[in-house]
Amino acid sequence: MWKGRFQESTAEAVQRLGESVSFDHRLFRQDVRGSIAHARAQQRAGMLTAGELEQIEQGLKAIEADIAAGDFEFRTDLEDVHMNIEAELTRRIGDAGAKLHAARSRNDQVATDTRLYCRDVIDLQLIPGIEGLQRSLVRQGRRHARVVLPGYTHLQRAQPVLLAHHLLAYVEMLSRDIGRLRDCRGRLNVCPLGSGALAGSTINLDREAVAAELGFDGVTRNSMDAVSDRDYIAELLFALALTGMHLSRLSEDLILWSSSEFSFVVLSDAHTTGSSLMPQKKNPDVAELTRGKSGRLLGNLVALLTLIKGLPMTYNRDLQEDKEPLFDSIDTLDLVLAVFADMIDGMEVRGQAMTRAAADPMLLATDLADRLVRNGVPFRQAHEFVGKLVAESVSSGTPLNRLPQEVYDLVSDRFGPGVREVFDVERALEARTNPGSPGFDCVLKELERWTLELKLG
Ligand code: ARG
């Protein structure tokens, strides 16, 4: 259909190369929504009778229902979702359907559909999915609100922190991820319809009205930019790649924590797998796959940027390649977020093992130096004094908190009597009262704040 200047249809292999309906069919709801808004504008401009508009609306809704029910056969010779729906509409209702494409091109149509789609996915899948994981993390934090474990730098035990503090670190990252999605949504929510192929149209429909009807905040301001801009997809893919990277780091923590070497957590049977060879194995596959999936999330971003970078103005068919990375990143993250939230909820925390690891008195060497500072010793000297005690502890094999008071006094008279009280971990955490620190009070407040924010009740 619609052959125009072409005498022959495209070769079969070319059709296979050029078709996008096998993946862009998922834009069908947005395509129908956009077409109805466009038809209404046409009717207001006197291009359609009320009866024709009625036919178009009913026809499009029936097609949408058929597609949703799986009763629609997409034809690859019709290339994409837009042509499939329009052709079927015309087949069903005749001339009225053939009027729909006036003052519109697939170039502004696909840009509109994709923006609507990104908006829907951000609102209905991605933000709720991330919040779901945040809730799981906060729930675990609350369940184990007083559990202490070593905080690490360079993967070496550094200082004691609360488990909840560690988990809330990820809640913070995820909340920035949500912020980025909201920013992206704010920028993408403008309507390209009316931009035509690249140069607008001599038929001037009311763009503002169409935009408002579709829930856009306004209209795009330059028709050439509007049909070739895919920044919003790049932004979304970046936001998703970054979320994937955060989940990958969390995965890495869980992989370490569930190893025999750490034994800090036990992942549920539902979220681990056995080995076909080694009967004793319980592998953290979900975490490993999540870490692995971050590769493709990054890859999709790079694929899109590479795809766009050499394109002259304006629309080029290359842009059709924007959708598979977009859909893949959305599907990947959607799945990972759901599985991950479940895994966190079902994870057994071995609080005693964590506390035992955090009881290493070396972790409070800095607090010991702080004590000297409070007693008037310049920090650099204090650091050196404590360093001497650490060396003595290592060489004598006596834990730092067991070195006799005399040894302390020999190094510096400023440690004062009862110096070993420093090694009380609870006390050390109580002393950390500054906002953002891992002290009991601060962390409790943060848990409460997130409980409210995430409506955990
Ligand atoms: N399927 C196309 C895409 O995704 C729709 C736009 C086609 N426009 C064109 N002039 N061939 O980009």
Helical coverage, percent range: 55-70%
- Remind me, CATH topology of the largest domain? Fumarase C, Chain A, domain 2
Q: Identify low-pLDDT runs.
A: none
SSE order in H/E notation? HHHHHHHEEHEHEHHEHHEHHHHHH
Report on this model:
This protein is mainly alpha-helical and 457 residues long. The chain has 3 domains: 91 residues, Fumarase/aspartase (N-terminal domain) (Fumarase C, Chain B, domain 1), CATH 1.10.275.10; 250 residues, Fumarase C, Chain A, domain 2; 93 residues, Fumarase/aspartase (C-terminal domain) (Ribonucleotide Reductase Protein R1, domain 1). 61% of the residues lie in helices and 5% in strands. The strands form 3 sheets. Strands 1-2 form a two-stranded antiparallel ribbon. Strands 3-4 form a two-stranded parallel ribbon. A two-stranded antiparallel sheet has the order 5-6. Helix 3 packs across helix 7 and helix 7 runs parallel beside helix 13. The radius of gyration is 30 Å and the shape is elongated. It starts with 11 loop residues before the first helix and ends with a helix. The structure holds arginine.
Strand and helix layout:
Elements: H1 12-18, H2 21-24, H3 28-44, H4 50-68, H5 81-93, H6 95-99, H7 106-143, E1 148-153, E2 156-162, H8 163-188, E3 190-191, H9 207-213, E4 218-219, H10 223-228, H11 231-257, E5 265-266, H12 285-309, H13 323-345, E6 348-349, H14 351-358, H15 365-374, H16 379-396, H17 405-411, H18 425-430, H19 440-453
Parallel strand pairs: 3-4
Antiparallel strand pairs: 1-2, 5-6
Bound molecules: arginine.
